[in-house]
Amino acid sequence: MLLALALTGMLAWTFNHQQAWSSSPPGIEWDRTYGGTHNDYAFSVVQTPDGGYAIAGYTNSFGPDSPDFWLVKTDEYGDPEWSKIYGGPSGEKAYCVVQTADGGYAIAGRTRSFGSGKCDIWLVKTDEFGNHLWNQTYGGPEDDIAREIIETSDGGYAMAGETSSFGHGSRDFWLVKTDSEGNMQWNQPYGGTDEDEAYSVVQTEEGGYAVVGRTLSFGPQDFWLVKTDADGNMQWNRAYGGGGPQIAFSVVQTPDGGYAIGGENGPNNDLRDVWLVKTDASGDMQWNKTYGVGTIDISKSMIQTADGGYALAGWSETPAGSDYADFYVIKTDVDGNMQWNNTYGGAERDEAYSLIPTSDGGYAVVGYTGSFGAGGHDFWLIKLAPEEIPATVDIDPDTLNLKSNGQWITTYLELPEESSVSEIDVSSILLNGSISVDLDAPTAIGDHDTDSIPDLMVKFERAAVIALLGTHDYGEDTGKSVDVALVITGEVAGTPFEGNDTIRILLKS
């Protein structure tokens, strides 16, 4: 199982630091805690087809032995529907969960109760109600841990983590591939003579795998990206970093075939920032950005968003080593430029480990909280509201006579360059939240303001708009005209947008 590695592309880079700016972050729609009087830690969340959530971690509050795997299922508002505990006498910790094609769940982490070593990877498969179907262990005589699990295109599973039982050094990346029943098909360690730990894996578009984590074998402590074929054979690898500790916790394959990698970067353990690295399909770095608001800022989870940008979640703490930390969420555009960021938390330590997009265009963030709940640390699930894309709105005519006739009020809608007006759901567009677009009227995509950004022309019934404006309270002494702001809302690719334009109303004498 030992591999001879040819390390390529070990690179040191100047870090491009991005300050917080741009549009307002989404607010919390609701949040829920789950736990008992002892410490309960959540590390992974998925949204279920019914709009609810499944959260995995481990509990010290419940079960005959602790810690144990703990799976909590909620409804769409975070209210618990059921929970299940899985474990043995010596302690189990779950770090990741996926919902499987059959509607059940696959949960992975580590066990000290079962297997052949001090600590083995443990995979538990359940039905849709969390009832145990089967479980499997993977490992050798030392410590072996799974940090992430994915369901593969053939219905099996791939788990990435670390092994101290196999490989070259004290710890190596370990990628384990199973069939749909959890039977191991192959496994591969990757690493050098020092410590190398994997935290995230994706199946690539051609059927291979990309695994990321940290390497001490091929750098002072750098991001490490390993690309394999469908059988786990290494095709190439890249290290990114320089000067201080860098740890990669998440990877996605981007539409251009490259990779985005999120984690932490710092000159030392007392000063760290969130770090986002974008590569091409060969792993060569195209750009990198760092983000931070505290002394220590860490990203444990990253996704690519519907608009092509990225969202990252972790925590921020000041000062380093303090008992105080907050969930930290960042949203960027496709080039990594920050659009918004925010912290969420209370007076104690709150750490986020998993971020997912929700079906309504918002986000769900899960981790653990010391600020809220029943005691110690509890699972904490935050539901963030959908983002709103800012739209540029031009309503024509700019001046409207309430006594005028005509069929339509024309509106031109323009979105930021990363969003396409061709994806606007025309039927979702409303003027002042009440007047719908006239779907029988012509629509067209053009460049009304000649700024080289496409805009969408839609039309509202003039009579309906005038009737609405006629009920408006213009106050006293308005004279013959008054300026009124009209708001246009709608959805583009499932994400809300909003814009407004001010027009002049000529009042009836």
Description:
- The chain has 509 residues and is mostly beta strands.
- It folds into 2 domains: 358 residues, Neuraminidase (6 Propeller); 118 residues, Sandwich (Immunoglobulin-like), CATH 2.60.40.
- The strands form 9 sheets. Strands 31, 33, 35, 36, 39 and 40 form a 6-stranded mixed β-sheet that branches.
- A hairpin with a 2-residue loop joins strand 39 and strand 40.
- The longest helix has 9 residues.
- The protein is elongated.
- The N terminus is likely disordered.
Q: What keywords describe this structure?
A:
509 residues; Neuraminidase; Immunoglobulin-like; six-stranded mixed β-sheet; five-stranded mixed β-sheet
Percent of residues in helices comes to under 10%
CATH topology assignment of the largest domain: Neuraminidase
How many structural domains are formed by the residues?
2
CATH-level-4 superfamily name of the largest domain: TolB, C-terminal domain
The largest sheet, given as strand count, sense and whether it forms a barrel, is:
6 strands, mixed
DSSP, total strands: 40
Structural class computed from helices and strand pairing: mainly beta
Q: Give the number of helices.
A: 1
CATH top level of the largest domain? Mainly Beta
Would you tell me the overall average pLDDT? Answer: 91
How far apart the termini lie comes to 89 Å
| DSSP strand content | over 45%
Using only C-alpha atoms, the radius of gyration works out to: 26 Å
> What is the level-2 CATH architecture name of the largest domain?
6 Propeller
Uncertain segments are 1-22
